[in-house]
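A reminder before we start the practical. When you read a complex entry, don't treat the lines as separate problems. The point of joint prediction is that each chain is placed relative to the others, so the output describes one connected object in space. Small molecules and nucleic acid strands, if listed, are placed in the same frame. In the example below there are two entries. Take a minute to note the order of the lines before looking further.
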Amino acid sequence: MTRYVVGRIGQALLVLWAAFTLSFILLQAMPGDAVLIKFLNPEFGLSADQVAEIRAAYAVDSNVVVQYGHTLVNFLQGDFGYSLQAGVPVSAQLATNLPPTLKLAGLGFLAATLLAIFIAFLSSMAPFAWLRNAIQSLPSLFISIPVFWLAIMLIQIFSFRFRLVSVINPGPWESLVLPVATLAVPIAAPLAQILIRNIDEIRTRPFVAVARAKGASETRLLWRHVARNAILPTLTIAGVLFGELIAGAVVTETVFGLNGIGGLTEKAVGNQDLAVLQAVVVISAAAFVTINLAVDLAYPLLDPRLRTGHGAAA
Amino acid sequence: MTSLDTFIHLTSTTAETSSRSGNRRDVLSVLRNFPYGLALAWLVLALVLLWATVPWVFTSYDPLQGTPGGQLKAPSALHILGTDSLGRDLFARIVYGAVHSLSGAIAAVGVGLVVGSGLGLVAGSVRGRVDEVLMRLVDVLLSIPTLLLSLSIIILLGFGTLNAAIAVGATAIAGFARLMRSEVVRVRNAEFVEAAFGSGGTFGKVLWRHILPNSLTSVVAYTAVQFGWAILQISTLGFLGYGAPPPTPEWGLLIAEGRNYLATAWWLTAAPGLIVVAVVLSANRISQSIGRSTR
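Here is the predicted structure of the whole assembly.
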């Protein structure tokens, strides 16, 4: 067991290191010198010596290998360099932009979970086949909707048509209603899909038939016996959901003008601010790897069938 | 990789429902069992393809030239989807925009298909250390959220239709590589492939004659799902302003432009978005039917 854990952690670190290297190759080692372009701008009125000094501070004039080592050491220490656009450390920018994103993502994830459970259980309890089919096709519809368009339509319908949510000077919670709803839809879709599939599959298992034969009602069957087994495998798509959450945050924050990590990312691309984008990419990859690692390590603890290593297939 | 999971879901859950087809062949049951949804999906894709190839057949308006005094007109018999802030016919812009969105998606899927399947084919056929390295590389690609990977490539290459397509295609590589590898490994272990090797087939020949054709069907189904996904991603990049520059009538850009007139002209955002949803849904439905027929 310890060997498995150590091996798995080593593998995660390897992937993370490779992701860092990939981002370095993509965003830093490519030709083009953003620092030179920015500071040679006559607006700054800097002398050639001063520019050279700044370039030395950014370590852009050394060769690629030195730059790579420099960046790697800095990243490990939590120093992500300077944002060329804002002129402040990237880590400071991330720190100020993180809380709104965490709030949005947390609430969005919560709403998505509730929505997915609602869809899954509604579909398994629907009395007619046509209704069940309609509910089961909801997730497919959800993943076909562009997130940015959904955000705009929600604004249009709830803010402009029905005037339910104010867009001008909304309260702190009122301003989160539509972004959270927007974010919930693309995340609920894969969750609901996997839940529906698991419920259908587990219902055919012998132990459910036994429980039914012993006189358990359909509702009790669903909640006591099926739900517990159906929810566990959703853990395996935690990493996928995280990716969706990031993409959703970029789009949602852009549409709603929220100042979070997503908005920061969008601005960084517009301004060619490589340092900011690289930091966001590496941190997201780290979070993704950590989530998958945690799921892999926690799964055997949560599912006793996996502990022995043989028997039921997961 | 959401699209891969979607794909697995699409092809797995529907397999059971299809088996319950009756033996009675009267007109009524034929009518009842006719796959209306699938037919509609093909119809939507065919229509959009026609828009991309011969847009002038569908509308007499110019997508770039507005009529003076005809700004922000609501949908009517004259302009079935209304006009935008410059008096341009929205329907004409959507029809002429099809070529930008579709060619972008096709280029993106092409990049993912060629590079991804190539990697998967090599990894699955050669195995050993090469396989190990290639699959770790795929893990790395998967560890970066798709939109961030696209943005990294966009910031590197610059904005534009082709660059956006490459950026989206790069995010599709990992999924294609994994699928192709698993298919090749599956087919490789089949008895008829062993027999082909046994009867003196060289590696290249067996690959071409036996392994490739047998692993192709699920790759084709996955390609259809990826196509829908690429349309979504391209429109997202277009919306953020990283794709084709204005006044190109790319669908994502159309929605972005309509955003400034939310209170006055709802049709400017609603119509292009609904088209995107319809195309993506159709692509997913078709992929589902291909996946079903192979299992």
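Discuss with your neighbour: The domain at 97-295 of chain A is CATH 1.10.3720.10 (MetI-like fold). What might explain this?
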